[in-house]
Amino acid sequence: MFAGYDRQIGSRFVIGAEVGLDFGINDRFTRDTGTALMSVDPKRSIDLTARAGYLVTDNTLIYARGGYTNARFRTSIKDRSSLRSSTENRDGWLIGGGVERAFTDRISTRLEYRYSDLSDGRGKFDRHQVLVGVAYRL
Question: Is the overall model pTM greater than 0.70, yes or no?
């Protein structure tokens, strides 16, 4: 889900801001270390971003985005004697880009790639996403 505001500048440039809420659906990843089974399950992310784009045609926008993200993850480690798990929120930043195509004055679709760095100064913790969306404009 997302909500945002765009403003066309001149005949071809668009700038805007967007807030988004994503829920992870079956995107847990697991690794077997030989002595334990570790898994990370993204639960949700909240994004607050700015975007800037260029209209390559009257109804096709190519854009870049960047901003703040917060993600909630559940981490589990299962070994022979126990199962340990915890849930934590991580703050970070994201960058990405995509293409949005308007079908009518009110309905458009988009395809976007996002890279999020949620390391929080504690090693490498990043996320790659490919998102598909439909927008309805008021």
Answer: yes
